[in-house]
Specification:
mainly alpha, Hypothetical Protein Ta1238, Chain: A, two-stranded antiparallel sheet, 5 helices, 4 strands, 61% helix, elongated
């Protein structure tokens, strides 16, 4: 079996139930952004390989993102595991926040490679969230997907801060030059 099928050569693709749609269909764009996020999380895991607990949760999240992509494509895979992951993300956010200085200003993305990639993942997650909201205006999407993506972006922001603090990299504050 070869990787290419030639079925998409004219700008069309199949959703999970076989329906053919344009590759510019909002559902395809949304799960494409989820795929992009998943790839960036792979980079985050590789760059932050010394953070075992964080890396393991991110691996679990990568699996969840495939499930979410399947849901966006009209697949029938259960979202039960992704719904449970929301509380795990909230718990890790709480644990990491205890190790961080209070946030009093907006901060600029950057710092260590792992933190910078985590900030990139956060911004792609926010884009995915916006795209899923747009899809949900026309197609029924489980509300847990929106909650999941919203919480994931919060988690990624917190992880980025944590990775920098752990390496004694100061946060770069946004300078509001009024």
């Amino acid at each position: 079996m070869t990787i290419y099928t030639k079925t998409g050569d004219n700008g069309m693709t199949s959703l999970a139930q076989g329906q053919r749609v344009s590759k510019s269909d909002p559902r395809v764009c949304a799960y494409g952004t989820i795929d992009e996020l998943n790839s960036i999380l792979g980079i985050v895991i590789a760059a932050g390989k010394n953070e075992k607990k964080v890396s393991q949760l991110l691996l679990d999240i990568q699996n969840d993102l495939f499930t979410i992509g399947n849901h966006l494509a009209g697949g029938k895979q259960s979202l039960v595991g992704t719904k449970k992951r929301i509380s795990q993300m909230e718990e890790l956010i709480g644990n990491l926040e205890k190790k961080l200085p209070p946030l009093r200003n907006f901060i600029l993305p950057g710092g260590t490679k792992a933190a910078a990639f985590t900030h990139q993942a956060r911004s792609v997650c926010r884009r995915a969230e916006r795209e899923v909201v747009a899809v949900s205006n026309t197609v029924q999407i489980d509300k847990a997907v929106l909650i999941y993506l919203n919480r994931l972006s919060d988690l990624l922001f917190t992880i980025a801060r944590y990775l920098n603090v752990k390496k004694d990299i100061p946060e770069i504050l946004w300078k509001n030059d009024k």
